[in-house]
Amino acid sequence: MQIIVMYKILTTQQILRLGFSHEDIRRARSCCVRRLSRGVYSVRHICDRDRHRALWASIEEGAHSEFTEYGDIRDEIEELDAAVMARCEVRFQKQGMVDARSDATPQSATSAQSSAAPPPPEVFSHISAALIHGLPVAYPVTHQVEVVRPGTNRRFKSIHVRGGTIPKNHRLKVRGTEMTTLERTLIDVARTYNPDISVSMLDSALRRGLTTMEKIFTTLSQCFESRNTKKVHLALDLADARRESPAESIAAVRFFQHGINGLVPQVEFDAASLHSRLRVDFCHKAARLIIEIDGIGKLYLGSGVPRDELERERRREQWFRDRDWRVVRISWKELFKETKFEEIKRILMKVR
């Protein structure tokens, strides 16, 4: 596995080595660079100042991505993702300094010991490990980087240290950074957070073929921790690789919580008159009910939705209604309310 560093992460020392001064860094922060933490920065975007090219050249070349700002709750997840990647990068550089100095001559190595102490052992875990693995976080649940270290639990402003020990076979080491394996990460998230967070990750990992249920259950059987094991089993029972977005996963969890059964995900219809096959998010054939879930992206698109896309969606829904199907749309906000789920329950109660 490789850590995918989406954003260009730079330390103060790296920027200085590129020929910038501290004053240049302050100016860049009002342009194309953002400060993540003390001495650590990420590049926001490509700017029009050729002087800054050395900072964002890798974005122009496609090696890194621009720092996306949505103007909604997704920005909190992006902020955390960048903070995790920054910590990974800093630890990698510190370890590199230690390795380089340990290869020096005995005399110079002795004089450098005090200034080249290795970073304390820690394992990225939970939401932080999920972000490194590229798993979706349905909505913000923490602003802190999460790591496991031997000892006791401690919370700081930007980091949550969970005291404990992760078995060696539940850890990965990439670029000098240790993290929990994908399977252990999924289990830890399911043990700690709400099912809609863990199920959306499980659905994504299973759909993309990153793991299997067998591997997850094997890892679960090896865990020392027994706390909230029933919660983990519930998330595994609710997981389904057919779902295609976190919003659909949240909806499935809400169906379970409201006692709604019989809704099958990702059902296809042959719509000859529209010259296409229509796939719906959820279908209850006995009730002739279609459920469509609008993810958070659609909530914030507003007038930016192309007119032809709106028309295509209207024709699609009309095709179902012409054939006596009922279509219920659930927006992102409605996933966290009761109204639509009570409506669905009333519809299903009429089915004999």
Keywords:
4-stranded mixed β-sheet, globular, single chain, 14 helices, alpha+beta, 352 residues, Endonuclease, Chain A
Task: Walk me through the topology.
Blueprint: E1 9-11, H1 12-17, H2 22-28, E2 33-37, E3 40-43, H3 53-60, H4 74-102, H5 106-112, E4 123-124, H6 126-133, E5 145-149, E6 154-155, E7 159-163, E8 171-174, E9 177-180, H7 182-192, H8 195-207, H9 213-222, H10 229-238, H11 246-257, E10 264-271, E11 276-284, E12 289-293, H12 296-301, H13 307-321, E13 326-330, H14 339-349
Q: Could you please describe the fold and organization of this structure?
A:
This protein has 14 helices and 13 strands. With 352 residues, the protein is an alpha+beta fold. The chain has 3 domains: 1-117, no CATH class; 120-241, no CATH class; 246-349, Endonuclease, Chain A, CATH 3.40.960. A 6-stranded mixed beta sheet has the order 6-7-5-4-9-8. It has a 4-stranded mixed beta sheet with strand order 10-11-12-13, sandwiched between helices. The relative contact order is 0.07. Residues 103-116 have a biased composition (Low complexity). Residues 99-120 are annotated as: Disordered. This is DUF559 domain-containing protein. InterPro entries: Restrct_endonuc-II-like.
